[in-house]
Amino acid sequence: MRECVWLVGAILLGSCGGKEAAPAAAQPPEAAAGLSPFELEHGIGPITAPVQLGAVDESMAAAGQVVFEQKCSACHKMEEKYVGPALGEVTERRSAAFILNIILNPQEMIERHPVVKQLVAEHLTFMPNQGVSQDEARQVLEYLRTQDR
């Protein structure tokens, strides 16, 4: 269960303590580590285009809650910092693509993304790769969207 140290943790890495992290685009050029404008805003990983979201899919959200409880909840709570950052309202702070990329590609995000590097420095822990599929990551995203209402 400890593997969830940063599953969704890095997703919202700026969500703890009521402080909102500066948008990735606002980072100085030297912090960009050769990332494209898309990668700075939406993260590094298999999601390479903005994700268009419609109404919350309640069926996907229910499945996402199960995945979250199995792989994320040991390290993440919605309203408080635990091992990783609080994830409540993360979808208001981060793009859907960023959230999916941190879930699916935490190692590279930790190594290369300036916002995620800052979050790791604040939380002093790394989010391991949980081995979730893109479908499971999308379900977790839907679940997280239900927490923003």
Tell me what the structure shows:
This protein is mainly alpha-helical and about 150 residues long. It has a single domain (about 1-50, about 65-145), classed as Cytochrome c-like domain (Cytochrome Bc1 Complex, Chain D, domain 2), CATH 1.10.760. Helix content is about 40%, strand content about 0%. It has 7 helices and no strands. The protein has helices spanning about 35-40, 60-70, 90-95, 95-105, 105-110, 115-125, 135-145. It is globular, with a radius of gyration of 14 Å. Residues about 1-30 have low confidence and may be disordered.
Mean pLDDT: 83
What is the terminal-to-terminal distance? Answer: 27 Å
**Tally of contiguous helical segments:** 7
CATH superfamily: Cytochrome c-like domain
Secondary-structure blueprint:
Blueprint: H1 37-42, H2 58-71, H3 90-93, H4 96-104, H5 106-112, H6 114-123, H7 134-146
Name the features.
Cytochrome Bc1 Complex, Chain D, domain 2; 149 residues; disordered N terminus; mainly alpha
Give a brief outline of the structure.
The chain has 149 residues and is mainly α. It has helices at 37-42, 58-71, 90-93, 96-104, 106-112, 114-123, 134-146. It has one domain (2-48, 64-146): Cytochrome Bc1 Complex, Chain D, domain 2 (Orthogonal Bundle), CATH 1.10.760.
